[in-house]
Amino acid sequence: MLDHDKLIRCIKKNSHRLDAPIFNNQDDTLQKLREKLKSHDKLQVTHQVISQNGGYSVLGVDGSQVHPDRSMSRVWCGLVNIGGIALHYSKSSRVEFFSSPEIVFESDCAPFGLSPETIDLMRTARELELACDWALQIQETTGNSPLVLIDGNLLFWFLDSKSDALKSHFFKRYCAALERLAENHIVTASYVSAPRSCDLLTMIWKPYSTGSGRSESIFCDADLLADWLLEFHRTEFFPMTTAMAQEYSPQTRPWFCYFNVGDEIVRIEVLGWMVQNDRENKDSVIECVLSQICDQALKGRGYPVALSEAHERAVIKTSDRLTFFQSLDRLQLGQSISQSGEVFSRSLGSQKALKKRIVAI
User: Fold this and answer.
1) pLDDT tens string 172-218
2) Most buried by CB count within 10 Å: which residue of 5, 48, 167, 258?
């Protein structure tokens, strides 16, 4: 058990190390950056966003996972759970709940093997694939497509740290899901709270060098816009220009903007076909998306209610995790052992957890 009194004393003892000076004139530097911002015409353009109160449907999707654990179960497998909620705002408003738990075995991860890494990557794939499935189901039932809201980025930057084989496999799978969304004209947006991206900064400023041979910025786009982007206003949409972004098709390539939702500046990412649609047609898909996201953020007191509720549908609690592993072991034991006291003794948890509870002092 962590001794909180000793922890506080330890933190206080190391307080001088918590504010390591990266550079001293942070405020002056940030002010200079904001001055540079004024010289870029496109970065100066902002748009007010009016909340759309009703008359739309939104589908929030989120996921969670359980990694394989030898200390919890004899069975080597993991669990991916994708949760979703569809909110229909109209004269007869209603709610639809979705949930899809899926067990992941070694054979499901061939040829990469079952690991926490592959489980995490598979969860993202299932989020996108089920988002499309559920959106099409709603479209077929109601005749209207919902706005699909996803938590996190549409640019899968985390794949850069993976092996070439893993990156190639899952990038193709992710893009295939995005292609399905685009081909069916399902309006899709991702919502990034507390963004740390520096796309706008790189347009106006070379990364600060600390003198240690490393180039790093202590600022991000949200810092640049904090005192400038008005409440319920957004920037223009900008295309992503990284090497990975170039591997997307034009209709799925992510575009982004920053949006002041009142409590914070968030990053909104959309698919390329939506931006292209607005350029070629008078109807503005983008404005509808932002208006609906604004309404969702207001309803959720700063965070889209569809995403927060989807998270609740997806989250796997400690008790759920225990139930999962217990059920696996019971099924396996039931195949080879009839009624046994061992099965019931394990209801208290894993063998490791059980031993910890019964050790005498």
Assistant:
1) 999 999 999 999 999 999 999 999 998 988 888 765 433 333 335 67
2) 258
Q: Are 118 and 131 in contact (CB under 8 A)?
A: no
Q: Is the peptide bond before 207 cis (omega within 30 degrees of 0)?
A: no
How many Å from the N-terminal Cα to the C-terminal Cα in the chain? 16
Q: Rounded CA gap, 115 and 164, in Å?
A: 17
Q: Which two tokens stand for residue 105?
A: 């075995």
Closest CA to 259 of 189, 205, 154, 188: 189
Radius of gyration of the chain (CA): 24
Q: Which token pair is 52?
A: 């759309």
Contact between 254 and 154 (Cβ < 8 Å) = yes
Q: How many beta carbons lie within 10 A of that of residue 97, not counting itself?
A: 12
CA atoms of 142 and 101, how far apart (whole Å): 25
Taking CB atoms within 8 Å and a gap of at least 24, the contacts of 357-361 are none
Give which of 266, 304, 270, 312 is closest to 287, Cα–Cα: 270
Partnered with residue 24 across adjacent β-strands are none
